[in-house]
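Worked example

This section walks through a single chain of length 93. The input is the sequence exactly as stored; nothing has been trimmed or padded.
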Amino acid sequence: MPLNIVQLESRRERLRKEIASNLDFLIGSVTSQGPRGGFSLTTAQNGKTRTKYIRSTLVAEVHKMTRRHGKLKGLLKELSEVNWELLKAKSET
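Given that input, the structure is written out below as tokens.
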């Protein structure tokens, strides 16, 4: 059974709030520098791999921020689906 407009708008507002609370994110992967130790943040920009050194005191925070990026991607996809359902529901009324 399809959700009604009020339920969809409520879901959309919840997603907006959750997205807003996760905006401190980083795109990329944390990688180890091998036997020498150390870590880096690796990202792709314009088809090229970019690597940034991460100070050891920041590794945990960078991991946390890269995980948020994955969460945000899922939330944005879900929000897009809710927006689509809202458009469909409003056009049927």
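What to look for: The radius of gyration is 19 Å.
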